Amino acid sequence: VTGVQTCALPILLRRVNCRGNNAYAAIVIGANGSIVQDIWLTDSVIGGHTYGVICYNVSGFYVTNVDAIQCNVGFLTYPASGQQVRQIFANNFLCDGSTTNGMQIYTNGGNCTILEFSNCEANFNGTTTSHAGIIISPGTGAITGLNFVNQQLVLNAGDGMLINGGTEIVISNPQVSCNSTASSGAKHGIEIAANVSNFSIIGGFSGQG
Description:
Elements (H helix, E strand, L loop, with lengths): L1 E4 L5 E4 L2 E3 L5 E5 L6 E12 L3 E5 L2 E12 L3 E5 L6 E13 L4 E6 L4 E8 L15 E4 L4 E8 L2 E3 L6 E3 L2 E7 L2 E3 L12 E3 L3 E7 L2 E3 L2
């Protein structure tokens, strides 16, 4: 059961309050049929679900002033083969207090490209060191063109951000501190795997806080 499942039409979701009803996901985009285009989600609070927002097949998703709190995972991308998640533009998107990971940018054989997060948070997430504020893992698909600006990653159980793969990833002016709360010193602020390419961190801070 989901709170909102979108179709293939432009949609504006504003002032959504979807908390505490234990749905599998509060908002699911593009799970069935054609790619969904042009979705706006603004001024909303989501909480208490397995997933806050799931993107399977979407082009043009605009997120502004949204809290996804106390879910199992606040935000997930998971395009299958033949699907794509592209052109997500998020500003002031908070994925805090998740049981596992704040954000999971994954694929299931599809592609994620051009995802931009500005002034967003992924704080207080996870219960073990395998959890993180943000995890980026291409799986059998591809992840290209991620941009994080003024991202906050604080007090997560494992890594602040774990990047297992992908290319053209830029992190600008992040605030990353006091992570690895499940076991001091076991994990990192930002952890980057060997198969990540065309990656840069510009400015910001990462340390004990």
